Amino acid sequence: MNSTIWLALALVLVLEGLGPLLFPRLWKRMVLSISQQPDTLLRRFGGGLVVAGVVIYYMLTKTIN
To answer: Quick check: 19 and 27 in contact, CB under 8 A?
Structure first.
């Protein structure tokens, strides 16, 4: 795999790990709150994240090449 993909994965892991590391109680409340949301809202949010990720990836590949 390209080293850029590994860098992106590493950054995602670092950012995702900061919440439970620095604010475990707040992180638990957030996860509990998210788990109580309706499925349609979670699907829309997840879809938005996927679209944003694809757009960022596309922009980065166009900028690098």
So the answer is: yes
